[in-house]
Design a protein that fits this description.
heterotrimer; A alpha+beta (251); B mainly alpha (131); C mainly alpha (118); B: 131 residues; mainly alpha; 3 helical TM bundles of succinate and fumarate reductases; two-stranded antiparallel sheet; 74% helix; C: 118 residues; 4 helices; 77% helix; 0% strand
Chain lengths: 251, 131, 118
């Protein structure tokens, strides 16, 4: 079935640090078919209309987490958002909210990456095992405790959805705290004490005010709001019992 | 030489950017009405401590039309508080399993709302029975 | 990173929020609408004699204190966050105002209840 060619207006928030004092909207008329994603629309612009437009992308199938942007004000992956949903009124694309714009649709990820490294996003084995001892076993229910939180692709849509991060960039933020919980909730992991010091701080779990929008926008169903808020209870219990629990005060 | 000049956007008026944020702010603003109601009860308690005449003055004040309007608004706000409190509850509870199956968000919210209806009815009938 | 003292305020916030969510609508309906305007309950439900007797019992004292104090701490925490959300970042002043208010209300309520003797 051949699609008749339609034209859609895409407004792109441009920011070229060498010439723009502040970001400005630039409009492009893009011919599209119903199977074209917003990312493909941007690629059309770069290939045929304006080669200076900058944006990040890689896999085109919602697994690399590179192409997140604000589409009509909502944080979305541009590869899994379709132009047809915005026809005929057109759409506006901007760099992810709450992060500094490096150029056009590209944000600075330095802060996110620094925070990600700080929570040691890898399993710190509870007990060292040799190859001969075999793999670390886990029951399906033990896996269920962390599995959804392990689906994170570091796309940062949740950061663009989190006003607390926007208001205070010191807040560790939804994605990284969800990954902190992902490793802490893993029965094979023994690094809880190392990570919880970050979680129990004002910049950790307590920087969250349970807005919940992070979980709405997550393209992978991670539910960072749940990962963070279920730790507030543990954090509070630890706060009040740390002096009567052996080793509790060190955390 | 670097041309980097990262641009930080303003957060002014952020809560107006998305209906989701407006609902969040509505949830938070309920606190102002909770505080107002608590202060009104506190005044009643202080009046009670001051004796019968003072307390009757407070009771009479409750019968003014303005206080009725105030309480109708507060009642609506408290109902919204109850709804929003249990609506966010699935996000604030640890993952739970019943009979090996994960408890779904809707079940948590539903249980909370049902508990609230039962608790409210219990309070109404206990107070009716006491007097 | 420095451990947050937020658990103290969050626990009071949570307790007050839960109490308000469970019985708040019923309380507002009784004290603000039904009793003053003569619906559903006997007109003397909140009479001086009844309320005095209620506040003389320890169960009554604890209930009244729990409602007033926890509602105040719940509200103080949210208003504190609300001001931060609206961009008021005078952190210390806002904290003193919100939590100081809740603390003062708690002290006044507790003192009044203790002074009401059987």
């Amino acid at each position: 079935m051949a699609d008749t060619e339609k034209i859609i207006e895409i407004q792109v928030l441009r920011y070229r640090p060498e010439q723009d004092k502040e970001p400005v909207l630039q409009s492009y008329k893009v011919p599209f078919t119903d199977d074209m994603s917003v990312l493909q629309g941007l690629q059309y612009i770069k290939d045929y209309l304006d080669e200076t437009v900058s944006f990040r992308w890689s896999c085109r199938m919602a697994i690399c987490g590179s192409c997140g942007m604000m589409i009509d004000g909502k944080p979305k992956l541009s590869c899994k958002t379709f132009l047809r949903e915005y026809y005929p009124q057109g759409l506006r694309v901007e760099a992810l909210a709450h992060m500094p714009i490096e150029r056009d649709l590209i944000v600075s990820v330095e802060d996110f990456v620094t925070k990600l490294e700080s929570i040691k996003p890898y399993i710190i084995p509870k007990e060292p095992r040799t190859l001969e001892q075999g793999e670390y076993l886990q029951t399906p229910q033990q896996r269920d405790m962390y599995e959804q939180f392990s689906s994170c692709i570091n796309c940062m849509l949740c950061y663009a959805a989190c006003p607390q991060y926007g208001l205070n960039p010191k807040f560790t933020g939804p994605g990284v705290l969800a990954l902190l919980h992902r490793y802490n909730a893993d029965s094979r992991d023994g690094g809880q004490a190392e990570r919880l010091g970050l979680g129990y701080a004002d910049e950790g779990f307590w920087g969250c005010t349970a807005v919940g929008y992070c979980s709405e926008v997550c393209p992978k169903g991670v539910d960072p709001a749940n990962a963070i808020n279920q730790n507030k209870m543990n954090s509070a219990i630890n706060y009040f019992t740390r002096f009567v629990t052996p080793g509790g005060a060190d955390k | 030489m670097s041309n980097r000049r990262p641009y930080v956007r303003s957060m002014d008026g952020w809560w107006k950017r998305d209906p989701y944020f407006i609902r969040y702010m509505a949830r938070e603003v309920t606190a102002v009405f909770v505080a107002a109601y608590a202060v009104l009860l506190l005044v009643g308690l202080v009046r009670l401590g001051q004796g019968e005449a003072a307390f009757n003055g407070w009771l009479q004040y409750l019968k003014t039309p303005w206080m009725l309007v105030f309480h109708l608004i507060v009642l609506a706000v408290f109902c919204y508080h109850t709804w929003s409190w249990f609506n966010i509850m699935p996000k604030t509870m640890p993952i739970m399993f019943v009979g090996g199956k994960r408890v779904q968000p809707g079940a948590i919210t539903g249980t909370g709302l049902a508990a609230s209806v039962i608790a409210c009815l219990a309070v109404l009938f206990i107070v009716r029975g006491m007097s | 990173m420095k451990r947050s003292n937020e658990p103290i305020f969050w626990s009071l916030f949570g307790a007050g929020g839960m109490l308000a969510a469970l019985i708040g609508p019923a309380l507002v309906f009784i004290t603000g609408i039904a009793v003053p305007f003569g619906l559903f309950f006997k007109p003397d439900t909140m009479s001086y004699a009844h309320m005095l007797a209620f506040s003389q019992s320890w169960a009554g004292k604890i209930f009244v204190l729990a409602v007033i104090a926890l509602f105040l701490w719940h509200a103080a925490h949210r208003i504190h966050i609300l001001l931060h959300d609206f961009g008021v970042h005078a952190v210390t002043a806002v904290r003193v105002l919100c939590y100081g208010g809740a603390f003062a209300g708690t002290v006044i309520a507790a003192y009044t209840l203790l002074m009401i003797k059987a």
